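Data availability (excerpt). The following record was deposited with the supplementary files.
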Amino acid sequence: MSGKVVGLLANDTKPAAVETAAGLAQQLKQRGLQVRMAPEFSDDEIAQCDFVVVFGGDGTVLAAARLVAEHGTPLLAIHLGRFGFVTEASPDNLIDAVDAALEGRCEVHERMLLAGAIYRGGSETAETQLLAVNDIVVASGAVRMVHVHTQVGKDAIATYAADGVIVSSPTGSTGYSLSAGGPLVHPDVRALMITPIAPHTLSARTLLVPDTETVYLTVETQTRDAVAVTADGQTGLSLTPGDTVAISRAPYNVRMLAAGGPNFYQKIRSRWHYGERLTG
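Predicted structure:
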């Protein structure tokens, strides 16, 4: 075990996360383990880590996942945020969870990622690449409708007059997609979800398509207000009429370590009280 390398990444805006990470770093070093701490991570260091422990809420975990996924380095997520649906353990059982990871007793859950390519003004060459764990969204930057032509493969689906369109992964079904009326989807389901945001119609619902498809979202020419594409609500770029975002499954997954915490079904019951009857 002394040859193990553990990466630590904490949300530096949360003092509790920074303090907890520093405490763990000290304990691991005392046990003869090598520790790498962000923001000093290089790509080589991420690849050298046996796993990375991330301290924060869901947003911190999403950012960490995009950072490590390409290297295949697993993540162990410690809940120090508000909701924490994708986090695995709490500070109370931190050492037990880390020991389980060090001893190879954790399950490894492969979570699919989304890849987004931006094509400007009908160009056939992608200008920018995006990566997301939860969702890629094309939406208005103002309180006005935008018109987004939506296509799956070679088939046109609809031109949504809406606040925007969300394309989410199964992991993202518990995020923005859910707020827009999308379904809860188990993270092992192989699908992409297309959900219009506040569409001006009674007939638009979430559409699930196989994860082998590519979804194309094109900003229509009648759109006059600012439009943006965002990945996980954290990275974004402006779009203009005629721009297209092509969204597909990324060529690699993010590997999440499960150390005996609640599973998907237990989380929707405990966090959202799913299926419980409301009584007066």
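Summary of structural features: The chain has six helices and 16 strands.
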